[in-house]
Amino acid sequence: MRITFAASEGVPFSKTGGLADVVGALPKALAAAGHEVEVLLPRYRMTKPGAPLPNCRSVTLPLGNGFHFASLQDGGVADGVHTYLVDCPEFFDRDELYTEKGQDYPDNHLRFAAFSLACLEFMKRSANPPEIIHCHDWQAALVPIYLRNLYTGDPFFADTSVVFTIHNLGYQGLFPPHILPAVGLHAGLFTIDGLEFYGKVNLLKGGILFSDFVTTVSHKYAEEIQTPEFGCGLEGVLQTRASRLEGIVNGVDYDAWDPATDKLIAANYSPQDLKGKEVCKKALLEKMGVTRPVLTRPVIGIVSRFATQKGFDLIAGVAEQLMAMDLYIVALGTGEPQYEELFRSLTAKYPQKFRVKVAYDNTLAHQIEAGADMFLMPSRYEPCGLNQIYSMKYGTVPVARATGGLDDTIEPFNGRTGTGFKFADYQPEALLGVIHQAVNFYRQPKVWRVLMLNGMQKDFSWPSSAKQYIKVYEAALKTPAKMKTAAPASNS
Ligand code: ADP
Ligand code: GLC
């Protein structure tokens, strides 16, 4: 199958979160299964420039008040996957990917319209059209919206189907209605069956409506998002697409996340020989500034965007009780000021028990995975979550809220079987209770070892998830052309 990915981030070119890990890894697994895979990403300031492509000097993008131009760079072939970078410096040569000082860039609609239009125009410069375009999140939602509204008569795409993956329903790409003409779309699309959403344009909604198949990143989240509690207002739209909506749990890339081979950690270790883990624990505590670390005391690790989604307000509610326990907490992240402030104030008050580094730091992320005993994810909602899966591989026991992918991937430990600890109620006391439960097991080293090994032996590698995507692609390809437009196309 010929598959083209369009996404706003992907490792090793750009990353703010788990989307980049997925876009970096799933194409490799598809290529290994014999498919022809290309990935299209924006070329940001953080992205190493690719080589110029002589036959793609530029495409013209009629957006906003005039013409914009993008060129395509060759990002190279790795593990059978060819990456191309959409270079449009006026939109992407900036410090951050989506925001500046915590605020969305005001021209995000134009930026990702330019990306989406450039993707389609570049595809048209290939000898053969893709059979599947696989788009991710609102930033690439204009690809199916354009395809099913502006490109409906284009013979080049006549046999192309679109799969759209929702990685996080909390980010929808909401804009005022007047952006429609600026991004080249007719105002007739601004209806309840189209892009309108409580008086705004909702690009994610368009992605859901105009794609042939919609997926999200865990089974539980696929169910949750069809309910008012988790649907962020789109539950009704998702219900209308229920027969074409599937949850596929993310895999992880063990080339990057395996304590036996990880070059970023103090010592390597494996289920056969766990000695290196204690070396990693000591190195982590020292690096974080703990003097004379007590290695029998459990370390709870956190690596996260500091966003409301991630549930850190629960920690605020029980911080004093947590700090009265015999444990360390080591946190890494950046994001909303109130959580950065919470963690900074706990570090100031309990410098020998709580340490935070407010930064984006991939090396430290690996070192926390390796050096911690437990990994905390009290998320309000979690479409999939990757760190709990990395944690299991590193013998670092996940302690998490039973939601979305956290619920799908962690099996509760019963003293013999299971891989972690979960709590259901979104209440500080429930979080505290599950941490007590985990610490009690930690005090029984033989039982704890069984728990660590249970997690380390789990296999969440990509091939099995990739197979499920291939089935979805096949289903999307079988979609009769007349069904391809879910919402009334309005191009006139
Ligand atoms: P989300 O995509 O919602 O942020 P995931 O658990 O799917 O959550 O993925 C987060 C990814 O981003 C993981 O690879 C994690 O290690 C990484 N990450 C998050 N915050 C940081 C940080 N401050 N420094 C380094 N890596 C981070
Ligand atoms: C999103 C979700 C996260 C998921 C990631 C990759 O950022 O918040 O749960 O793991 O996408 O799919």
Profile the largest sheet. 10 strands, mixed
First and last CA, distance: 34 Å
CATH fourth-tier homologous superfamily of the largest domain? Glycogen Phosphorylase B
Q: What CATH architecture of the largest domain do you see? A: 3-Layer(aba) Sandwich
Strand content: 15-25%
Tell me the structural class: alpha/beta
Strand tally, please? Answer: 21
Low-confidence stretches: 486-492
The molecules bound to the chains, other than polymers, are:
adenosine-5'-diphosphate, alpha-D-glucopyranose
Kindly state the percentage of residues in helix.
25-40%
Counted by DSSP, the helix tally is: 17
The top-level CATH class of the largest domain is Alpha Beta
Overall domain count: 2
**Overall pLDDT level:** 96
Give an account of the 3D structure.
With 492 residues, the protein is of the alpha/beta class. The chain has two domains: 2-251 and 464-484, Rossmann fold; 275-459, 3-Layer(aba) Sandwich (Rossmann fold). The protein is built from 17 helices and 21 strands. It has helices at 18-32, 89-92, 108-123, 142-147, 179-182, 203-210, 219-224, 235-240, 275-287, 313-324, 337-349, 362-371, 387-393, 404-409, 428-442, 445-456, 462-477; strands at residues 2-6, 36-42, 51-52, 59-63, 66-78, 81-87, 99-100, 103-104, 132-136, 161-166, 174-175, 196-197, 200-202, 213-216, 245-247, 299-306, 328-335, 354-358, 374-377, 397-401, 421-423. The strands form four sheets. Strands 1, 2, 3, 4, 5, 6, 9, 10, 14 and 15 form a ten-stranded mixed beta sheet that branches. Strand 7 and strand 8 (103-104) form a beta hairpin. Helix 10 (313-324) packs across helix 15 (428-442). It is globular. 50% of the residues are buried. The structure holds adenosine-5'-diphosphate (ADP) and alpha-D-glucopyranose (GLC). The site of alpha-D-glucopyranose (GLC) has 14 residues, from helix 1.
